[in-house]
Specification:
The complex is a heterodimer. By secondary structure, chain A is mainly alpha-helical. Chain A is 66% helix and 3% strand. A 3-stranded antiparallel β-sheet of chain A has the order 2-1-3. In chain A, α3 crosses α5 (79-104) and α3 packs across α8 (197-232). Chain A is globular and about 80 Å long. The mean pLDDT of chain A is 86. By secondary structure, chain B is mostly helical. Chain B folds into 2 domains: 2-87, no CATH class; 101-330, Orthogonal Bundle (MetI-like fold), CATH 1.10.3720.10. Chain B has 13 helices and no strands. Chain B is globular and about 85 Å long. Classes of the chains: A mainly alpha, B mainly alpha. At the A-B interface, α9, α10, α15 and α17 of A face α1, α5, α6, α11 and α12 of B.
Chain lengths: 410, 337
């Protein structure tokens, strides 16, 4: 009886994605435990930023007031809250759809076109809901203090959020609960205005995520355009361009940030733009280096010979192949932007009060040389640290996953 | 060699001009540059319309936006006037201190620079042996631990560490081991030199510890990579074949050959340290450049902000130049032409 060699098991349906470049990188990234932990932390932060109105809110989910049922929490959701919720739901749905598509389509080309169709549909829904929200929905100004109402016995059957405080709900002054120690009511104590520290900590996740991502996207756009032009037109453009990059890098970043903030004001949007404007040089350098390599390749010459327009050559043909180092730089950049924001907020020139941010909470804990309120100072700093660290770990993990030298070793 | 230095200096001129252009543009196009409510709010309390207009005119004249007759000056000429003033050391007068900015900076720069140089020295002192050891023990637990630890330190926010240090180590509530403010005691007049130095060191322990851990990751990583590059070279095999001990190979041959990248990093270290100085100096009430910058922001003292950004950039450029020269001195492969 001849022994038949056991045949190679056929690749399961859905193996197609495992052969694409990014799938390989992703799998290698997921091999590291730390990478997965860091990714989980960022995901938790994102979930927190979306769901925070339901977790920490001064208005109850439902309550009976003057004999009528009210739903103050839902009523008080702002446009931004709704927008984040819708986007969060869309992203979640997108992940599920992606999983299904990968199961269904074995061919990469088919998969890509299906993905593009679904992505377009998702973006359409997002745009429509944004237009609807900003066209027809208005933020509701609710000045009722539900805690006071409950204390005076006017509020019945109230169901509060797990943490019944929003980021600007103050304890009444006559209770004298400013800078209070942690208690059963306020797990991390209260700040100088009698606001719950834990609630502010949770709400801060929004500012931190938004500034980190949006300012880096701004930097990414500038850096990619600038770097690709430099790398494509070598010679005079490149030399002049690199001089300008050196000029911007020579100015100490924090000094430049402070100068910008001092002169151009400091709302949240300005802050994102300013941080983006001061952190694009690294991305530009990397894109330039990649483009210098890619422009030598034959397919670029073919694209040129075919008479494609410049933007098509640069962004449709060259950029996808030069994107790899950019993603690593982007991740480190997000870490840097979160750090910059917290430093600026700590110095008192970051986001404006009452918007909470971990940096400004550290500042609001007071001067540690006089009365050191460790219960207010430890948590925000720890969260800044964990977030910046998580982004840095993800950056390192991606770099290791992408590095071709590691490929060879396997 | 002199030729090389001169050439580097000459190449630095376009960078300097570009830098001044950026700074000029940032300041010049700021909204409310000359109006009371904007960036120039020092005279914000003036009720009198006429006095406000006169003050605005004076500011405009000083910034070379208008000439003596009150006519607008062409934008490029504004830049040239400003550059002329700046290069002559005339940064204008501080609104908040009523002193020439140059005088203020003369006091502040040595304070910040001396601290930063000590910090840079400490960073190198810790990072180089760490990076070496990590490269020798590549892939082993020390390597992983060192990489992870320095990355964690890199992510640690300065202001948090500073708060914790002041709160727990420099506060009568807990441990009162270190002073919480300044770089000198008040009675320096009666100190001998040794006492003076000791007092200074005692004061700067905490600020320096805040500033120095962040740079470890970068430098030790670079050292490790350079070491690994060299460890794979043929001369290491030759040395092993000669029967040299591993310790000798690493400390005498590979170590020296992998020192070059350490020099280049120095130029990148200083701008970051200047930024960190803003935080530490504010927390520890050290009268340095960073503290001056921040107080200037709060009192909207434009001349100081502008001058500081300029001086900070010039300092980074000088570090870049020193780095280049050191590199040329250390590496015989760099040609001097």
């Amino acid at each position: 009886m001849t022994e038949t060699a056991t045949p190679e098991p056929l690749p399961a349906v859905g193996e197609a994605r495992l052969r694409t470049y990014w799938a390989v990188v992703w799998r290698r990234f997921n091999r590291g435990v730390l990478n997965r932990v860091a990714r989980a932390w960022v995901l938790v932060l994102i979930a927190l930023a979306v769901l925070v109105p339901f977790l920490a809110n001064g208005s109850p989910y439902t309550a009976v007031l003057d004999g009528q049922h009210h739903y103050p929490l839902l009523r008080n959701l702002t446009r931004l809250d709704w927008l984040l919720l819708i986007c969060g739901a869309l992203v979640l749905a997108g992940a599920l759809v992606h999983r299904q598509l990968v199961r269904r389509h074995a061919e990469v080309d088919e998969l890509r076109s299906a993905q593009v169709r679904w992505l377009a549909a998702g973006l359409l829904v997002a745009a429509a809901s944004a237009a609807g929200l900003f066209g027809f929905y208005h933020d509701y100004l609710d000045t009722r203090d539900y805690h006071a109402l409950q204390r005076s016995g006017q509020l019945h059957e109230a169901v509060f959020a797990p943490l019944p405080w929003g980021y600007k709900d103050q304890e009444p002054l006559e209770l004298d609960r400013t800078f209070a120690y942690p208690t059963r009511e306020h797990f991390l104590g209260t700040d100088g205005n009698g606001r719950d520290a834990l609630a502010r900590l949770l709400w801060s996740s929004r500012v931190v995520l938004a500034i980190g991502l949006i300012s880096e996207v701004i930097a990414l756009v500038i850096g990619v355009i600038y770097g690709s032009l430099m790398g494509y037109f070598v010679g005079r453009v490149d030399i002049l361009g690199m001089r300008f990059v050196e000029v911007v890098e020579a100015i100490p970043t924090l000094f430049l940030l402070i100068t910008f903030v001092a002169l151009y004001g400091r709302n949240l949007f300005m802050l994102m733009v300013i941080i983006g404007l001061t952190s694009w040089t690294g991305i530009a350098r990397f894109v330039r280096a990649e483009f210098l390599r890619i422009r030598q390749l034959d397919y670029v010459a073919a694209a040129k010979a075919a008479g494609l327009p410049l933007r098509s050559i640069l962004f449709r043909h060259m950029l996808p192949n030069g994107l790899t180092p950019v993603i690593v730089t982007f991740t480190f950049g997000v870490a840097g932007a979160v750090g910059s924001e917290s430093v600026l907020s700590f110095l008192g020139i970051g986001v404006e009060p009452p918007t909470p941010s971990w940096g400004s909470m550290l500042n609001e804990a007071g001067n540690p040389a006089e009365t050191f309120r460790w219960w207010l100072a430890i948590a925000p700093g720890l969260l800044i640290f964990l977030t910046v660290f998580a982004y840095n770990i993800i950056g390192e993990g991606l770099r290791d996953a992408i590095d071709p030298r590691l490929n060879k070793m396997e | 060699m002199l030729h090389y230095i001169l050439r580097r200096l000459f190449l630095m001129v376009p960078t300097l001009i570009g830098m001044t252009l950026v700074l000029f543009a940032v300041v010049r196009f700021a909204p409310g540059l000359t109006t009371g409510g904007g960036a120039f709010g020092a005279g914000g309390q003036m009720r009198n319309q006429q006095a406000r207009a006169a003050a605005e005119q004076a500011v405009k004249k000083r910034l070379h936006l208008v000439d003596a007759q009150g006519h607008d000056i062409w934008l490029p000429m504004q830049y040239i006037y400003w550059l002329n003033d700046t290069l002559h050391g005339d940064f204008g007068e501080s609104v908040q201190y009523n002193l020439p900015v140059a005088t203020l900076l003369k006091e502040r720069i040595p304070v910040t620079l001396s601290i930063n140089l000590v910090v840079a020295f400490i960073v190198y002192l810790l990072a180089i042996p760490g990076g070496m050891l990590a490269s020798v023990k590549r892939g082993k637990s020390f390597d992983l631990f060192w990489g992870f630890g320095t990355l964690a330190l890199f992510s640690l926010p300065i202001m948090w560490v500073g708060s914790m240090e002041i709160g727990f180590l420099a506060n009568p509530q807990y441990l009162d081991w270190f002073p919480a403010a300044g770089i000198h005691s008040t009675n320096t007049m009666w100190m001998t030199f040794a006492q003076y130095v000791k007092d200074y060191l005692w004061h700067i322990v905490l600020p320096i510890s805040c500033l120095s851990y962040g740079g470890l990751a970068f430098i030790s990583k670079l050292k490790r990579a350079a070491m690994l590059d060299n460890l794979g070279q043929d001369y290491v095999r030759t040395a092993r074949a000669k029967g040299l001990s591993e310790l000798t190979i690493v400390t005498r041959h590979v170590f020296r050959n992998s020192l070059l990248p350490m020099i280049t990093i120095f130029a990148g270290l200083i701008p970051g340290l200047l930024g960190g100085a803003v935080v530490t100096e504010t927390m520890f009430s050290i009268k340095g450049m960073g503290e001056l910058m921040l107080t200037a922001v709060f009192s909207r003292d434009l001349p100081i902000i502008q001058a500081e950004a300029f001086i900070g950039s010039v300092i980074s450029l000088i570090c870049l130049l020193i780095t280049d020269i050191c590199y040329a001195l250390a590496d015989p492969r760099v040609s001097y032409d």
